[in-house]
Design goal:
The chain has a single domain (3-236), classed as Alpha-Beta Barrel (TIM Barrel). The longest helix is centred in the C-terminal third of the chain and has 20 residues, at 162-181. It contains eleven helices and eight strands. The chain has 237 residues and is α/β, with parallel strands linked by helices. Strand 5, helix 6 and strand 6 form a beta-alpha-beta unit. The structure holds pyridoxine-5'-phosphate.
């Protein structure tokens, strides 16, 4: 069964809008856990626009399910990860001006930098995932540098419609098969929601989805507990 990592960044987006302490990020993590989330994901961005350092420490201390820390390949953040010791770190590309992570990591082009980060994190016992496009060149680079996981960027699939969306789905399917055959564990995420997740969940060998924006958006109307349960139902149906 595919696991669900609930990304709670956007509860922190709401909190940072007033720079206060509501909504409580730890409560969001614990609520998602209670509703059946298989993991909690947070992205500690270099500009700290939502999740703060203290959130990462606090969540790691109190949850009983795995913590996945999304992060750029930056020394400062790598050092924090090596101190927090999340179960997994997912290395993502990061641009200051982007609204959200805009594309996959160029693991092949930035091989030496990414590979050094992978080794440093792994030396602390952290498993590493690389957030990449469904592209064999990137998958080969992830395998070569010894990452345990890849997370396939589903943004192009999520943001397209009709024939183009079917093409993107096919590209994801081929990439999952290719990576699985190389022995990589395959996750996916970005832009997955209550209508487009089912088709991706039907792909064989998927390990986990990391889903944030759609779950937190739905939670405004039905509560986070219900929003997590509903997403898990879709993934199973
Ligand atoms: N996976 C990764 C690596 C991401 O960077 C993000 C966005 O922070 C997500 C998953 C979740 O994307 P969304 O919020 O669109 O569900």
């Amino acid at each position: 069964m595919i696991k669900l990592g609930v990304n709670i960044d956007h509860t922190a987006t709401l909190r940072q809008a007033r720079m206060g302490d509501e909504p409580d990020i730890l409560q969001a993590a614990l609520t998602a856990e209670k509703a059946g989330a298989d993991g909690i994901t947070v992205h500690l961005r270099e500009d700290r626009r939502h999740i703060q350092d203290s959130d990462v420490y606090n969540i790691k201390k109190h949850i009983s399910i795995p913590l996945n820390l999304e992060m750029a390949c930056s020394e400062d953040i790598i050092n924090i990860a090596c101190d927090v010791l999340p179960n997994t770190c997912t290395i993502v590309p990061e641009k200051r001006m982007e609204i959200t992570t805009e594309g996959g990591l160029d693991a092949a082009g930035l091989y030496d930098v990414v590979s050094a980060a992978v080794k440093k994190l792994q030396s602390k016992g952290i498993k590493v995932s690389l957030f990449i496009e469904p592209d064999n060149k990137q998958i080969d680079a992830a395998k070569k540098m010894g990452a345990e996981f890849i997370e396939i960027h589903t943004g192009l699939y999520a943001n397209s419609t009709g024939e183009k969306q079917l093409q993107e789905l096919e590209r994801i399917k081929n990439a999952v098969k290719y990576a699985h055959n190389l022995g990589l564990i395959v996750n996916a995420g970005h832009g997955l929601n209550y209508t487009n997740t089912k088709a991706v969940a039907e792909i064989e060998h998927m390990n986990e989805f990391n889903i944030g924006h759609s779950i937190i958006s739905r939670a405004i109307f039905c509560g986070l507990h219900e929003a997590v349960i509903e997403m898990k139902k879709i993934m199973r149906s």
